Amino acid sequence: MKDDIEFRNNKPHVIYGNLVVDSLSTLTIDEGCQLCFHKNSGLIVKNSGKLKVNGTLANPVIFRSDTYVNFSPLLDTIPGMWNGIWLKSGSGSHELNYTEIRNSDVGILIDSCNAASAPNLTLYNCKIKNTISCGILASSASILAANCEISNCGGYLLALMGGNHDFRQCTFANYWQWLRKTPSIYLGNSYNGILGELHLTDLQKAYFGNCIVYGEYRQDTTRTELVVYKDENAALDFTFDHCIVVSNLYKKYPASFIECKYYADPLFRNTDHWDFQLDTLSPAMNIGLRNIINFSPLNITSDINGMSRVSDSGPDLGAYERTE
User: Fold this and answer.
1) Other CB atoms closer than 10 Å to residue 193's CB: what's the count?
2) Can you give the pTM of this predicted structure?
3) N or C: which end of the chain has fewer CB within 10 A?
4) Which domain holds residue 144?
């Protein structure tokens, strides 16, 4: 696809093969659009290309498999039905608002975009779920994410290899129904090239504020949903600020964990039905830090469903404010 183009919400957009946003081009997707990808198809944004998704609370944009329109809605729950989104090296300033990405091989792969002061990728009120491998895989990128749910992936929900990142009021919940061999979040300052060579890349910042990081592994303090790889020849800086996190790395990196709860079950409503809102007695209720909201680059005074976070004694952790 060359030159700027806009997808309008007039019908499902069924895609065979790769939809490619060429260099210096912008793909804008209007609210309410459904992009339905055939098997082995995906979205690729090339160097200097840009993706702008304008979903709203009432009319989100959905990236999904074409089985939803061509075959049976039951197949819409099977992971790995299309490739996913690849934001290639040199692309940037991508913005996804009220967007849902589901049932792909990988949710978003953002590849070697310079970690500049402005985010390469902004995710606002988004959901990425039910992927075969990673929800988000990022190398040397800059991601700003708020009010997002990343859930049920066969690999990492989030893998950050270098870069500069800010995640606030996000729910990372991994109840993958098949065998899972990785924790939910990976933080590192290097990655392997296509020939297996090691590339060092500073993890300048990985900030998580008022977030939940939880999964289904056995209930003891030997399990973890967070792994950190630090090469001493590159920088690595990460912070979990007022979070629930399944990890004992606070013993090794005490300065990186601020007022967190460890191994506390957040009591999601119904993990079998992928409902990661908070249940009545959730320990995540009202324990968030208000300043994490006040100083957020994005407005998160309301949650992903539009419910106020500032009308009671304190914000709840994660993407969802507890409601009756």
Assistant:
1) 8
2) 0.95
3) C
4) 5-294
